[in-house]
Amino acid sequence: MVLSALLTAADPPQLLPAREQMAFTLGFHIILVPFGVAFTFMMLICHYRALRHGDQQALVLAQRWSKVAAVLFAVGAVSGTVLTFELGLLWPGLMGRYGPAFGFPFAVEGLFFFLEAIFVAIYIYGWKRLPPWPHFFTGVVVTLAGVGGTASVIAANSWMNQPAGIAVQNGRVVGAIPSQVFFNGAFWWEMVHMLLAAYIVAGFMVAGVYAWGLLKGRRDHYHRLGFAVPFTVAAIAMPLQFLVGDTIARQVYDREPAKFSAIELLPTTGDHVPETLGGIFADGKVRFGLQLPDVASILAGFTPSTTIKGLDAIPAAVRPTDSAVNVVHLAFDVMVATASLLLLLALWFAWLWWRRREVPTDRWFLRSSAVAGLVALVSLESGWVVTEVGRQPWTVVGLLLTENAVATQGNLWPLFATVLVIYACVAVGALCVLRTLRRRWSEQGTEAVVVPYGPRPARTANGHPLGGDEA
Which residues pair with 287 in a beta bridge? Predict the structure, then answer.
């Protein structure tokens, strides 16, 4: 919220509370996205292992994770619904002018949301009622619907960065090609980037819970598997994310020069541009940063002679403010730094696994893993700040300024306060439910848990347990 205060101007007066509210609700909701997309995938890995290899502990994990996923899905449904209403209440200029195009991806997202909601219910309900493999495939639909919903939202956001597929007359959309709106120039890379981020965040956050258990001496198969599955998923996604992120940076260089110049903290156009680590932009100058000669030009075009447009190439009327530039640059630095730490942790895991072929039990590795989820969450939020603030002062780049998109009447502060209360209640309620589940599962243990279709003792032809009643 402090970021919004730095970015907004004195007029129109609704701009500050609208930005504050949107930043808060987006920042809250994006935490839940990885659990709808990636956590359910990890649940299915355990479910598949249980069915293929007769691993009862894997089935216990899948069953318990499905309950956590259901709780978080309910929270995400609330926060996502609020976001939908906010688009109309806070940004009527956007919806009024570009709703026919911008609204199409959200219509698709609504279909995926209902599909996901239906099959989440079937999957949870089916634990004691469906045959094993049909039940498993209802979970596959949940995961695919989550991916589709996320891709739809990313389509809307990427369209705001690189609008396409519309015909505009008198500032309003008079024609749209849905396929071009959805699959705009920024869609594919932003979607892959977000999906990988979801797997990284969910993987490290879930693994962190079981890393804490391993640190406490719980070295049974249940905890080792609960750590290994999500951590492996995150560790595989981590180097892929660096490759995708590097490609996206060059896409931004080519198509979003204002955002790129803010990322690089570059006041003037030129070649042999250094990479600036840290530092701030004030009075047209870079202060306090550590500069690596030629690195920005090399990263952008693979040669030191690559020319990068600076802030001076952006018309003064639509040039980002110094505050916006600083926010984008520092958020980018935080994103890259935290992602680098996570990549090192993933490589550490690979090295330990290569040496021992078992889940690592080194205490410093487990301590690092226990906090990796929070580090990943910081990286995710920082990347979202780069995407959203880097577009300012535009809501739709080249077409609609943010100050022209915001509501022009009414006091938005009471609405923001109401949203804060709603989100606080929802968050507290969700935490209480999750703590209750954790306490119940801790008391149950794992060995005595009865699973719906777990491994059963071998039986003779007449139905008696093989080896006597004790079997």
Answer: 280
Residue carrying structure tokens 């990885």? 34
Residue 361, pLDDT score: 85
State both tokens at 159.
């369209």
Give the span between the Cα atoms of 178 and 182, in whole angstroms: 6
d(C-alpha 134, C-alpha 126), whole Å? 9
In terms of Cβ atoms closer than 10 Å to its own Cβ (0-12, 13-18, 19+), residue 72 is: buried
pLDDT at residue 80 in the model: 86
Q: Which of 186-195, 298-307, 458-467 has the lowest mean pLDDT?
A: 458-467
Residue 374 tokens read as 């929070």
Q: 377 and 205 in contact (C-beta within 8 Å)?
A: yes
Q: Would you say 132 and 51 are in contact if contact means Cβ atoms under 8 Å apart?
A: yes
Tokens in use for 323? 């505050």
Q: How far is the C-alpha of 317 from the C-alpha of 333, rounded, in Å?
A: 27
The type of residue at 463 is G
pLDDT tens, residue by residue, 405-421: 998 887 889 989 999 99
Q: Which amino acid is at 411?
A: N
**Contact at 8 Å (CB) between 58 and 49?**
yes
Residues 6+ apart with CB under 8 A from 32: 72, 75, 76, 79
Contact 376, 340 (CB under 8 A): no
CB-based contact 305:272 (threshold 8 Å): yes
Residue with tokens 């995710």: 380
Distance CA 281, CA 325 (A): 7
What CA–CA distance (Å, rounded) separates 213 from 69?
20
